[in-house]
Specification:
single chain; mainly alpha
C-alpha cells in the first residue's frame, strides 16, 4: 500500500529544483539504458534510437537547472515512485518508436500532476510558487513529447506479435 504524500517534505525552492533536476537526470539515465538494451539485446534499432533521443531530451531538461542548486531533501512527497522513470512493465522488446514517445508523454503527464499537487498542497509558499513554474515547464515538455510522438507512424494493432519464437531448449 502506498503512503499518503508528504507535501511538506520539500521545504525550499532550492530543494524542489534539486529534486526536479535529479528526476530529469535519472530519467535520462533510464532512457539511455533502454536505448542500449534495445540496440544490443532486442535487435530493435529504431526504438533504440527513439530512447536515445529521449535521453538527449531529458539531459537538456536537466541542464536547464543550475548544477549547484542545493541539497536534495532526504524524502520527497512521492517516495521512491519517481514519475519520470520508465515503468519496466510498459516496455516490450517489439515496441515501436511511437510507443517510446507515448511512454515519455505519460511520464510527463504524471510529473505535471505531481508538481500541480505540490503547488496546491505544499505548506511552504516558496515551494508552491516554484511548483507553479515547474507546472508551466512540464506543460512545455508535454507539448514536445506529444508533437514528437505524433510525427511517428502509429503501430498496427498486432505490433507485439512475434512470429519468431525463442530458439532454445531447456538444458542447453
Amino acid at each position: 500500500m502506498s503512503r499518503a504524500p508528504d507535501y511538506g517534505a520539500v521545504k525550499t525552492s532550492a530543494e524542489l529544483l534539486s529534486v526536479a533536476r535529479a528526476m530529469e537526470e535519472r530519467s535520462a539515465e533510464r532512457y539511455r539504458e533502454l536505448a542500449e538494451a534495445f540496440e544490443a539485446s532486442c535487435n530493435n534499432p529504431d526504438t533504440a534510437e527513439a530512447f536515445a533521443e529521449l535521453a538527449d531530451i531529458e539531459e537538456r531538461h536537466a541542464a536547464d537547472f543550475p548544477a549547484s542548486i542545493g541539497p536534495r531533501p532526504e524524502t520527497v512527497p512521492w517516495g521512491e515512485d519517481d514519475p519520470e522513470i520508465a515503468d519496466p512493465d510498459a516496455v516490450h522488446y517489439l515496441m515501436w518508436p511511437w510507443h517510446a514517445f507515448d511512454l515519455a508523454l505519460r511520464h510527463e503527464h504524471e510529473t505535471l500532476a505531481l508538481f500541480s499537487a505540490l503547488a496546491e498542497h505544499s505548506p511552504h509558499a516558496e515551494v508552491r510558487a516554484e511548483s507553479l513554474r515547474l507546472v508551466e515547464r512540464e506543460k512545455g515538455h508535454i507539448v514536445t513529447m506529444q508533437s514528437r510522438r505524433d510525427e511517428l507512424p502509429v503501430p498496427p494493432d498486432d505490433w507485439d506479435d512475434d512470429d519468431d519464437d525463442p530458439n532454445w531448449e531447456a538444458g542447453d
